[in-house]
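Attaching the record inline, Q. Sequence:
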Amino acid sequence: MKSRKLIKNYIYNTLYQILVLIAPLITTPYISRILGVTNIGIYQYSQSIASYFVLMGAVGTTLYGQREIAYLQNDPEERTRAFWEIELFRIVATALCLAIYLVVFCAHGAYYQIYVILSLEILATAVDISWLFMGMEDFKLTVIRNTIIKITGIICVFLFVKKASDLRIYTLCVTLPLFLGNISLWFSMNKYLVNTGMSIAEVIHGIKRRLRPIFVLFLPQIAMDVYLVLDKTMIGLLGSGIDQVGYYSQGQKIVKVILTIVTSLGTVMLPAMSAYFARGDLEGIKSSVKTAFRFIYMISFALMFGLCAICHRFVPFFFGDGYEPVISLIIIISPILVIIGTSNVIGRQYLLPTNQQRAFTYSIIGGAVVNFILNYILIQKWDAKGASIATVFAELTVMILQCWFVRGQLPILQSLCSGLRYALFGTVMYIICRSIGILLPQNQIWVMIVIVFTGVVVYGTELILTKDPMIKTGLKLLKGMKV
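Structure, as predicted:
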């Protein structure tokens, strides 16, 4: 029963996470042609600044809240207390961050109008209670919510963004649905909350009690943001032009959408792992982690090599003329699909649920330091390519540090070696698909479809012929699942 719930939640969360990114991705071919790379660079640079205030407003409460709710799945009264203590603290923190943001960035400057509209993202952080539903392992509601809101946003982009000067309208079409979507979840929260009669004094006392564990998780969130967002900021400050931010963001966008498929497993496994840990079932944790490694490698290597094989044709088709530099950026960044997949298993599926936040924090800080140093050196030499290289080495640093921390707790070497077979399968698939891409005519959509189909057939055949154990595991879970 637990396995069915996990695979169901994996599917729901994969849809949820993809939907968060798929809305701008659907509009990207249109927007990249209408706004142009310069305006895209302006938006991405401004959004990177707003992201720091979003991070400060959340104060690490998303991961902390999800974990605490998971611990209290069977205790409605304590769960309700925990929810209001965490959420009220989040609202106060976000209000302070918004005030600073408005004073510093929205009063003047080249892009101040874009900054004003992006303040909606900070407001959306204050009212984001998706962590409540994720902690309760209820992913269906968020999928339905996001579907409605994101489709509305997509329609608005195509209806109202018509020329290069419509950057402000585009920014509003992106941020407003996020805010409205977060508000909509409040109408469903009573499903998991009860009336506790808490007084203001009790809430304040509860918040004080939670400050230390919240800030423990906040530190890795700050560090994580350094190499998730700071690279765009540093390209804008140190690079040869704002266009480089546009190229980099477009390359990142493609890889990050695909990465969502890989990392979604970690989000749905965190509450399950927390529940295992609360029961003291360490063997259940280790067994799940071992299976997760093999599953992640089967998916991530296929996606990495497939993306590299198709990007030469995909980028001109998807973004239009003038985005050729994105091809090399995608190839450089693509290894993070495997690297982040690995660290996601160790960090989110093991270290966090087992209360080893210190090791998790150290690994993230290590990656952030490497990313900042390499960004400073490489962006001045190679612009967006330098930032892409820095990102890969930063993620590799996180993975290596996490492997070191769990070396005595998990069969880490055996788990890493389980990915070698999938690396070989992916290499064979890449060679065949890339050869087809070179031999067949250029600029033909049907050729790209043939390459993708060939890749799926080749990789699938390799799995079947070698009787890969993940096929049997997947079929068993799907057979017993009722979606």
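The radius of gyration is 22 Å. The chain has one domain: 2-479.

More tomorrow.
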